[in-house]
């Protein structure tokens, strides 16, 4: 990873929205200083995006008070049950740092829910495609992104496991949730040396980790566990139930 260590003065000078006078800006700065930096997130562009993107704008009213907590959040589906899971900010920030996103990259954001990660990515990558399988969440993401003036994002509704083939290939694919199998169609959408990051087990006896997969020519993508993290397994990437008598 490129050396991009942050100093407090550089960060303060580069982020106007983090200046005194805004209550939510103060909460964002507190999140960066007390959650992200202690979790070894030091990449300046990533930290700037977390300082500048208002996470509360992507949450329903009942979750807004938790916008800058260190918790993972569940969004309720139309039945009132727990639906899409939003990663804790420190996990998301570290994941984005490990993806090493360049300003020229095209990124596929899979299962990002209401669009918060896509909004963060919009300031890191050249182009972002946000994929949601839930039509209501896809519509919500479009509205949320429009409300804060983000324009370089294409929101699509469809199968998470199939990706968005007509928009590929991608330099980076991010999967917001646990995966057990079924990543092959997404691997096929990566450019050579492209990387896919998801939360997975590297073996049956281990816990979940954020894992970075890298596409190699004529080879199975290499997998490298990065750090511990947990998330519910996404339906599209869950193992089929084993047959039993």
Describe this structure in words.
The chain starts with 7 loop residues before the first helix and ends in a 17-residue tail after the last strand. The protein is globular. By secondary structure, it is α/β, with parallel strands linked by helices. The protein has one domain: Vaccinia Virus protein VP39 (Rossmann fold). 27% of the residues lie in helices and 27% in strands. Helix 2 runs antiparallel to helix 3 and helix 2 crosses helix 4. The strands form two sheets. The protein has a seven-stranded mixed sheet, covered by helices on one side. Strands 1-2 form a two-stranded antiparallel sheet. The N terminus is likely disordered. The protein has seven helices and nine strands; from the N terminus they run αααββαβαβαββαβββ.
Oligomerization state:
single chain
Instruction: Tell me the total number of β-strands.
Output: 9
- Please indicate the percent range of residues in DSSP E strands (runs of 2 or more): 25-35%
Unreliable stretches covering 5 or more consecutive residues: 1-21
Tally of structural domains: 1
CATH topology: Rossmann fold
Describe the strand arrangement of the main beta sheet, using strand numbers. Answer: 5-4-3-6-7-8-9
- Helix percent band: 25-40%
How far the N terminus sits from the C terminus, by CA atoms, comes to 50 Å
Write down the secondary-structure element order.
HHHEEHEHEHEEHEEE
Taking all Cα atoms into account, the compactness measure Rg is 17 Å
Count of helical regions: 7
Instruction: Choose one word for the global shape.
Output: globular
Give a quick account of the main beta sheet: strands, pairing sense, barrel closure. Answer: 7 strands, mixed
- Any idea of the CATH class? Alpha Beta
Structural class: alpha/beta
Instruction: Label the CATH architecture.
Output: 3-Layer(aba) Sandwich
């Amino acid at each position: 990873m490129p050396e991009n260590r942050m100093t407090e003065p550089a960060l303060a000078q580069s982020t106007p929205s983090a200046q005194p006078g805004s209550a939510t800006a103060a909460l964002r700065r507190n999140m960066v200083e007390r959650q992200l930096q202690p979790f070894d997130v030091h990449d300046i562009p990533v930290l700037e995006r977390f300082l500048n993107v208002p996470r509360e704008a992507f949450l329903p009213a009942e979750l807004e008070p938790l916008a800058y907590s260190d918790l993972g959040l569940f969004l309720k589906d139309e039945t009132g049950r727990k639906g899409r899971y939003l990663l804790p900010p420190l996990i998301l920030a570290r994941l984005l740092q490990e993806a090493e996103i360049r300003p020229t990259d095209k990124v596929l954001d899979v299962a990002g829910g209401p669009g918060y990660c896509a909004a963060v990515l919009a300031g890191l990558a050249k182009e972002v495609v946000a994929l949601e399988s839930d039509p209501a969440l896809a519509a919500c993401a479009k509205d949320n992104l429009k409300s804060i003036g983000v324009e370089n994002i294409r929101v699509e509704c469809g199968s998470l496991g199939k990706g968005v083939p007509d928009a590929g290939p991608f330099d980076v694919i991010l999967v917001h949730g646990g995966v057990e199998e079924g990543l092959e169609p997404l691997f096929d959408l990566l450019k050579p040396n492209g990387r896919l990051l998801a939360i997975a087990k590297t073996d049956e006896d281990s816990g979940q980790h954020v894992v970075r997969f890298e596409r190699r020519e004529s080879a199975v993508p290499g997998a490298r566990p990065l750090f511990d993290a947990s998330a519910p397994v996404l339906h599209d990437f869950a193992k089929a139930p084993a047959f039993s008598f």
